[in-house]
Structure of Monocarboxylate transporter 13:
Amino acid sequence: MAQPDPSLRDMTNAKPKAEGKSDDDEAPDGGWGWVLVGALFVSTSLVFGLMRSLGIFFVEFVQYFEESAQAISWISSTGLAAQQFFSPLGTALCNAYDTRVVVMTGGCLAGLGFILASQATSLVHLYLTMGVISGLGWGLVFTPMVATVMAHFTRRRTLVLGVGFSSIGLSSFAFNPLFQLLVETYAWRGALLILGALSLNIVACGALIRPRRRSKAPAKVDSERRSSCAATLRRVSSYLELSLLVDRPYVVYTLAVTLLNVGYFVPYFHLVAHSRQAGFSEYQAAFVMSAAGATDILGRIVSGWFSDLGHFRLIHLLTVWTTLAGLFIMLLPVSSLSGSYAALMAISLLYGFCSGALTSLVFAVVPMIVGVERMMGALGLLQLIESSGGLLGTPLSGLLKDVTGNYTASFVVAGGFVVLGTLTMTTLPHYFSCKELPPPQRRSLGNKDKGLDPELEQMHRSPTDTSCRGVNEVCSNLKECEGDNWVTITCWKNAKDME
């Protein structure tokens, strides 16, 4: 059989060597991934840290618009619901186009919402601006940033998520006094203008994501597929990863997280009110929540570090932290029955630590269930579905308080939902196995989703997937390991192709 032209072989090898630097830069557990951790740190603080601090404007809106507290509270609720509702849209756009562009667009929308809100003349205006527009921007930012960072790390994945999410607690402490100062100095309209400018820093975080390198071949295939309506629907379904909704492990895990969400946010909304009802001063009640927030930060980092040691499976650690968090939520009202502030503070500190410890693991377990190449869409669907639990939990606890006259039943039921979520996780396939099973891989990633980001494709690429399986198989742009470098090889179909 005739041998390939040496000059042609050199040409095929030259391209990967030229790209070798970029491949090495995107290697897991290092390189540019640490820059993206910093971008995640800043962007999450400007999403959830800012969202948690919007209560500073609550009194200002009540006085200016002369509306009820319930009507004003829908502003932040709309923003949270929009962020989770539009998360699948953000992941689908990332799969279809470029993560960098999507996140930068989300940053622009988040800032635009606050800028337009500064000119509000009615509550409906605030619902549409701070709620829908900024919420849409947050939905385009959070999940894509999390998925991008997770794709750059394997061994330290949980730790880097803990570090990135720790900014939520830190920014909550910093933003509350800062926003209060801005309101006192510039009134609420001027303060919202500054918040809009502050949110535009998300655009810089998105710019740090490396743009996708697209080949010409997929573009040609894409143009052919667009001619068919059915093919277009299949393509949209693949971008949204709707096939995960019939995947039993993913459905079970999503149900577990949704049940967890029913009770998870209840202490954030009602712990201060419960402390005041228990007879503690306003300062003491506020300090209980601040102390829980401090241990929340510590729990995220410690949990991430311990999880990445690899002594236990991530799903087992997650169930431990969720069980403890649920039990401590139940104990919060019990600890204050005797009027002991020290007991309430101790339980609050323990709850804060456990609630922070489980947060990073909730996201880190997802690629172990669906695989890294489907992680972007899986996170988006998870955010969408679990939002129902978060929106249900607080009204349910408020209803129980109105019926019983205190928050004891509210916290007990909330903790029960968290424990119920833990029990649901135990029904996952192979849950009781002591070894971490390899994550599933998509069988034909190249044919189905060539538009995925290279960092998501890279995580499940192996030498066995990129070797020539025979001389009768046509292969192009494949790679094999030659020393420490990846070089392109070409499989020829027959001797006629080599001429």
